[in-house]
Amino acid sequence: MEWLSENKNVYTVPKGQFIFQEGSLVHGVYFIYHGKVKVISTNQEGKSHTVRLASDGHVLGHMSLDKELYAIGAVALETSQICFVENEIFYHTFVTNPDFALQAMMFYSRELRKSEMRTKCFAQMSTEEKIIYALIYITETFGLDRQKRIEINLGRQEIADIAGTNAEQVSRSVTQLKEKKIITLENKDIIISDFKALKQRLSRYFASEIFN
Predict the structure, then answer these.
(1) Which of 1, 37, 158, 212 is most buried as measured by Cβ atoms within 10 A of its Cβ?
(2) Distances, alpha carbon 122 to alpha carbons 112, 156, 177, 191, in Å
(3) Would you say the pTM of this structure is higher than 0.90?
(4) How many domains does one find in the chain?
């Protein structure tokens, strides 16, 4: 740990700036000390889709550790403090610390399983369920404040980018959830009035570990 600490780089990324971009050369692994980040993928038409959210303690760029190009990009949703470890440093840690290598292998295995299960469940969800999933995912990643307001203010299109739909569908589902008193709105902020009821609407997917 001392050796890693001596060879890491820590820097601040302003809101809206890339931590790394799609198509750029993989140089190492990023850890979030403090902040909120979205991991995005862009299709051939140039439309971006949010494939993952990340906050304090999460790892970024870890699915590409060889001399290749990033298939995804990472953007700061707020000013974030990032730690960067170069590939060579990471490789050396694997080689010299078998216990670390084993734990890392188990971590990668869990990450792959979660990704596969989310893809499987997403294929079965209706548009409304995908939007509910997005709201739950945002809440469980970033948390709620004392007023049960989601800790980060994401626009309807940003929520749509997570759910794989459009802003109009998000607005429609948010209105329906408001009518059921599961959520309330304060200006553009979403307040989760009944988080238990929100999760209950996706109870058939809980065993799939899509929220872990």
Answers:
(1) 37
(2) 15, 19, 20, 24
(3) no
(4) 2
